[in-house]
Amino acid sequence: MNFDYFYNGEAERFNFLKVPEILVDGEEFKGLSAEAIILYSMLLR
Known about the structure:
Structural class: mainly alpha
Number of helices: 2
Order of helices and strands: HH
Shape: elongated
Distance between the termini: 36 Å
Radius of gyration: 15 Å
Largest sheet: none
Mean pLDDT: 89
Number of strands: 0
């Protein structure tokens, strides 16, 4: 396999969200839907 790497500003063209790990792994948040977790992450920005 040949993987291409991103250098300098090339990676800026990709969008990402920071998702708090507690929302994914925490027992108290097991009832949250994936949509709720994504929405919360979007509101954190």
